[in-house]
Amino acid sequence: MTSAARVGDPIEHSEALNGLLLGLAVGAAAVVVAAAVGVSIVASGGLAAVAVVGAVVSLSAGVGELIGSLSYCTNTAGHISKGSSNVFINGRPAARAHLDTAECDKHGQVPQVIAEGSSTVYINGQPAARVGDRTICDGKISAGSDNVYIGGETEQTDDINPEVPGWLHGVVLGIGFGSAVVLTSWATAIVGFIGGAMGGYGGGVIGGRRYGEGSDEQKVMAFGGAFIGGSLAGKGQQWFDSRYEFKTQGLGSLFGNIKVVPKSIQATFGHAKSTDYRKTFFEEYPDQRGKVIVHHAVEQQVEKFYPGLVKSEELHSIENLRGIPKELNSKLHLSAIRKEWNRFYSQNKSPTKQQLLDKATEIDKIYGSQFTPPIEE
Question: Where does the Double-stranded DNA deaminase toxin A prePAAR motif domain start and stop, copy by copy (predicted)?
């Protein structure tokens, strides 16, 4: 049961739109400051730097919108100006959906129709408006009668223009999704998007049942669910990609020829965001700091023997880095692996990039089980 709405009762708007715009500005400013102090991932330039900017800006916009939508960021924006001519509540005309209007400071002199009301209580043939029901400009009725309450679910009679336009949500979502594609992969971005949608829906449902529909707690739980769901799904996809692959010999009538199999060992290059390869490795595997020596699968000496064959960002990418336990470094890298590469250099005066990767793959298959993390079939 919710308080009945009458002529003169206030409507309010949140600061969701202003919060989103402020979040965009704060995110952009943070990136500028980071670039000014020389944060490597931004200073490296290129598409990756643009993607980082997009990721930061889209996240800060989402946080800004969330904060702006909370109850303590709402403000009175007008009042109900028209009501029933023959039904009164506490001596004031009762407010009805579809028929009655409110004045809103954010929309000048244009009356804003009340767009929601009770699904079970009607006044003059239209749903009775209550506290919490919205106008077509997405303003909410924020106060009503102290002693007259109206029940029922919410019935919407008119289209509501959201405080944050759908196209703006689409732009922010597109920026975030595009950044995820550049920084990870299409598969990871898509799975992360699906995980985020499911997490947000689940958080919203749980928060709504526990704290009430439209409550601050529900909004926070929906946002948190989306963030956690998207992060976990994306990480899960990366974990799957690093270990398994799909094999097929034709799709078959029921897709029975598609199989998930462990990924075969194959050395590859990525695109490093920094030339500090040790930092790159330990950011990916922080628990190995102090335990391993970081080496390259296709080692750095190729720059001396074959100038220009391998780009620096390929050589120092995480895909080309290997961790060798300190206690094995002398025996494994300085002896066994060094002999393998010295033999390769003496036998191949003008190899292709693929030949370098094939040699690294061969070494991974022989010694990879001793690396940290291990590389195994």
Answer: 2-61
Whether pTM > 0.90 for this model: the answer is: no
Residues contacting 246, CB < 8 A, separation 6+: 258, 259, 260, 261
Residue 258's beta-bridge partner residues?
A: 248
How do 116-118 and 75-80 pair as beta strands?
Answer: unpaired
Three-class SS state of 118:
strand
Cα 96 from Cα 82, distance rounded (Å): 9
Ranges in the chain annotated CATH 2.60.200.60: 2-11+76-156
- pLDDT (tens, 9 = 90+) of the chain, 377 residues, equals 899 999 999 999 999 999 999 999 999 898 777 767 655 544 445 566 778 788 889 999 999 999 999 999 999 999 999 999 999 999 999 999 999 999 999 988 899 999 999 999 999 999 999 999 999 999 999 999 999 999 999 999 999 999 999 999 999 999 999 988 887 788 888 999 999 999 999 999 999 999 998 899 999 999 999 999 999 998 888 777 766 776 666 555 555 566 777 767 789 998 888 889 999 999 888 899 999 999 999 999 999 999 999 999 999 999 999 999 999 999 998 889 999 999 999 999 999 999 999 999 999 999 999 999 888 76
